[in-house]
# Entry
Amino acid sequence: MSRTEGIMWVEKYRPKTLDEVVNLKGVIQSLKAFLKTPGTMPHLLFAGMPGTGKTSVALCIARQILGSNWRTFTLELNASDERGIKMVRERVKNFARYSRSGLADIPYAVIILDESDQMTATAQSALRRIMETSSLFCRFILICNYSSKIIEPIQSRCAIFRFSALQKEDVMKHLRYIAEKEDLDLAIDAAEVIIEFSEGDLRRAINIIQTSAMYREDASISKNTVFSVVGQAHPKNIQMMLSKALNGNFMEARDRLYELMTTYSLSGTDIIRQIHRELYRLSYLSPEDQAELARIVGEYDFRLSQGANEDIQLSALLAQFARFTKSRVGSVSG
Amino acid sequence: MWVEKYRPETVAEVIGNEEAKATFVNWLKKGRKKRAVLLYGPAGVGKTALVHAAAHDLNYKVIEMNASDTRTGKAIMEIAGPAASLTSLDEFSLDIKGSILLFDEVDGIFGREDRGGVGAIVKIIKESQTPIVLTANNISILKLRPITNASDLIKFRWVRIPLIVALLQKICQTEKMSSEREALETIAQGSQGDVRSAINDLQTLFQGKSVLRKEDVQHISARNRPLDVHQTLKEVFSAVSPKEAWSILNNSIIDYDTLLLAIHDNLPLRYRNPENLATAYNILSRADVFRGRIGTEVWRLLPYVYDLLAQSATIAPKTFQPFKLMFPPTKFSLLKWTGRDRAILESICAKIAVKCHISKRLANLEFIPFLRMIFKKESDRATKIATWLELDEKSLEYIRRMA
# Structure
């Protein structure tokens, strides 16, 4: 059995060259110009939502500039895993020093710094210095969701590229390509459900189609299979937690919350983001109610960013939800 | 100070801890296994008093060093070294058997100022010809390990309340003060078995009075005593105003972070009415925001945390009904329960992160939900994916359990 047989499809179908990238026509064109004369390429900053191809494009560039040796001369770091000044100083600096002595016939080494907007401002300042001193032999590709979270001096040293969410047609094209390669029959309506739930995030779309492929009943992936996969993979606890809270049952809602934080190990920010998204899917709420609840969620999301303790802020939010329904239904004594 | 005035002179006058007393006297007389003995237990139960009383009874001289002395190794050797190695002149000239070297509150030895302190004490223990007695509140401190290994250990417990009441009564008689028995009981109970603080409280309460009634005590003891978590929570939730709650919180020995969590856990038990609960949580959430703004430096904001905590506990004093308090914080116990699972999940996410060029956080959000489904049913393809991700059996078992 080959070890690549079980490869996750997000990796298997990750583009190897810029030509294989399905979206981002404009971005790809400018980048290809750099590839012709790699020496002219500045540091790059890719900004955009998850699953829009930032990391893939960065890896393509590394592969195309560095050739067969690309793994040796590419350093991939993730700022959300190794935050702070120490990470920048030690790992990046060491790599820069090492690559200076060993550059063969390649123009420079490539350092891909994913989720760089997770870095503190201090770490970013240190990074800026390192970018300057190492620019003779290193190129940085910084990847982030929001370029506004990157300090000005770094932004001004980079060519900035914005990655927009994928268009429906692009996702559709890619899904059909995968289905063809995997010998799957993907129904049009099934593909549409995948596209709807992946919200322009190609990574999620591919994970959904791979999981659906394992749950299909025959050669074809039906709409129902996709629905059941999406329904099960999507944590129901958020919905249940919300409906408990909105029914005024604070204690049970809080139990759900604790389950999300422990068993599912979700952070407070991730939970509150999902609450916000789920809110608009609750059909039993009127648009006015949704708007009012969203205002409350926003307030507590802000407090979460200021506060010290996530369970306190999220519990406080659930308590507001529990009051919300009571105040509409009528007063309750106790 | 009454604490000094009524310090026991003889072993018989030391109240409580009969077994520890007997063991210690026996140790001094002959029963030494090691050269040193460590008396440990809560503050104010008579450890140091017993050493002096026993020395008095058995004709020893006590050379004392306590936590307020500078305790670098050198300082200890200078003062204690000669006393420990030479037999005192007194022994020949007077009717005294010898000396006891007393190191009081050895758990106070840490930090920069006491560099080498523990080592010096252990050295003295090894070389000494004189019996060495040490006292400590807490011997679980890792740094004290060398000392506890080199010493015999005698444990002290809280002194029982009736014994303290009897002692307080005796003091009142000697001082020619009259007091209601209930007042003395309240003081004794409030002391939680700490005799020294009970005597201190008694003296404080008699300030400017010759008669002590139970009303006087109830009023003052609640304010003056540092409160433990249960007491703090009980009193803070039953307080009739934010002001009262505030003074209770300020007198508590519990730190603000524990208070935040403890109030958070008990809030839904205190307020059954969703309206009140929401209001209280809104305030508590702001307390937490201030705690967040403090971080590790802006400590001048701390008073606002206390203000808001006090408010959140007292938004509807009239609705108060006793309830069963929840402690320790669920946060701590939740972390304990899932610590092992958390580590497994983390290692899985780390593997996905490397293979799929993604952060661990996104691996948990975007991959784990699908992997849960993929591994739910055992299949050839699932096995291959597990192989590619290099997941071991333990990780697979965990993912299946999640589903």
